[in-house]
Amino acid sequence: MGTASFLKRAQALLRIRNQLVRECLAELLAVFVLILITLSGSAQMVTSSGTKGDIVTAYLAGALAIMVAIHTAGGVSGAHLNPAFSFTMCLLEQFPWWKFPIFMAVQILGAFISAGAVYVLYYDAIWHYSNGTLTTSGPRETASIFATYPADYLSISNGFLDQVIGTALLIMGILAMLDTRNKSVPKGLEPVAMALLVFCIEISMGSNCSCPLNPARDFGPRLFTYVAGWGAEVFRWVEGRG
């Protein structure tokens, strides 16, 4: 009885009643889960030189991570996970504009923290694979574990168009799935359908920029690599690319 009473008191003490705080914490946790799985799939592929994963398994990990993340926060924050989606909801007047910068900051923070967790998880593998040098290009680069980088042939304008089209397709697909006036996805299967949508986009539009589709997913980890030792090159368009 004593233990049960203590647990009840602890639950009452830790219970968060402020709705905005609850939503922010849910969004933070969901983005953390999303990026943790996504980047781990990439880290396993890169640091094993493709022997323990390839581009398809990395894409699959990222797609399935969407499903887990939506289940994590869908009932609290709506699991936006993506500033582009939050922005779209604001434009459609389904989300208040004053919440947008808050959600965006939380999403970027969640991605930043998650990148740190992946760095710790794969610390030995990253340093072993890179021969002790953290670089953004070359045969032993490891920056692409965390953020996406353009293909050598890609121009800035084509890269911009690539992301606009990919992100627009993602948002359009999600809105179509959630539209009750349309042939919507059966209730409870939305996370699975959205995971398949992301996987579909990744395997069809991933060659140019690796399909970030999410500003928080790219900027948060990219900022982490800047802080962690990869340097300012992570924010530059590498010479010879485009």
Q: Care to describe what's here?
A:
With 242 residues, the protein is mostly helical. The chain contains nine helices and no strands. α2 runs parallel beside α5 (100-121), α3 packs antiparallel against α8 and α5 (100-121) crosses α9 (215-230). The longest helix is centred in the N-terminal third of the chain and has 29 residues, at 19-47. The radius of gyration is 19 Å and the shape is globular.
What is the alpha-carbon Rg in Å? 19 Å
User: Which stretches are low in confidence, meaning pLDDT under 50 for 5 or more residues running?
Assistant: none
Which whole number gives the mean pLDDT?
A: 88
Q: How many H/I helices?
A: 9
Distance between the termini: 68 Å
What's the β-strand tally? Answer: 0
Query: H/E element string?
Result: HHHHHHHHH
Global structural class: mainly alpha
Biggest β-sheet strands, sense, barrel: none
Estimate the helix proportion, in percent.
Answer: 55-70%
Which range does the strand content fall in?
under 5%
Shape type: globular
TL;DR?
The protein has 242 residues and is an all-alpha fold. The chain contains 9 helices and no strands. Helix content is 64%, strand content 0%.
Tag the structure with descriptive keywords:
64% helix, single chain, transport, 9 helices, cell membrane, mainly alpha, 242 residues
